[in-house]
Design goal:
The protein is α+β, with helices and mostly antiparallel strands and 125 residues long. It has helices spanning 3-11, 62-67, 87-96, 98-124; strands at 36-38, 44-46, 50-53, 58-61. Helix content is 42%, strand content 11%. The longest helix is centred in the C-terminal third of the chain and has 27 residues, at 98-124. The structure holds zinc ion (ZN). This is Zinc finger MYM-type protein 5-like.
C-alpha cells in the first residue's frame, strides 16, 4: 500500500471553516456554503471530497487528487480550481463525472479497509 496515500486517507480531508476566504482579482471568493450540495428535492448533503487550499487559494477534490496519480488530471486535481463564478455548476458536473465517482468509491473502500486494520497498526506502535 502506498504510504503517502495511507497517511492522507487516515487524516481525511481537512476542512477550513473560516469566514473570510481571500477575494480574487474579480472580488469573488470561496465560501463554506460550497461544502454543501443540494439534491433536487432541496435536501442538502456534505461534499466530503471538497478541500480548500489556503496555499493556492483554490479548491481540490480529495479522492481524485490522491487516487488519480499518473492519470489524466483536471483543475480539481492538479493546480486547484478557483473559478468562483462557475463553481456551482462545475462542482455538480464534477460530482457526476465517471472518474470522480470511481475515485470517491476507491477512497471510501480504502478508508474502510484502513479502519479494519487500525487495531493491528496500533499494536505495532
Ligand atoms: Zn473528484
Amino acid at each position: 500500500m502506498n504510504l503517502f496515500r495511507e497517511i492522507l486517507v487516515q487524516q481525511g480531508p481537512i476542512k477550513l471553516k473560516e469566514e473570510n476566504f481571500p477575494k480574487d482579482g474579480h472580488g469573488q471568493k470561496f465560501s463554506v456554503m460550497y461544502y454543501k450540495g443540494h439534491f433536487p428535492n432541496g435536501e442538502t448533503y456534505e461534499r466530503k471530497w471538497l478541500i480548500y487550499s489556503k496555499h493556492s487559494s483554490s479548491i481540490f477534490c480529495f479522492p481524485c487528487k490522491i487516487f488519480s496519480i499518473g492519470k489524466k488530471s483536471t483543475k480539481l486535481t492538479e493546480n486547484g480550481y478557483s473559478d468562483w463564478n462557475h463553481i456551482t455548476s462545475d462542482l455538480k458536473d464534477h460530482e457526476k463525472s465517471v472518474n470522480h465517482k470511481e475515485y470517491f468509491i476507491k477512497w471510501m473502500d480504502f478508508a474502510a479497509r484502513m479502519k479494519k486494520n487500525e487495531t493491528v497498526n496500533e499494536c505495532n506502535l
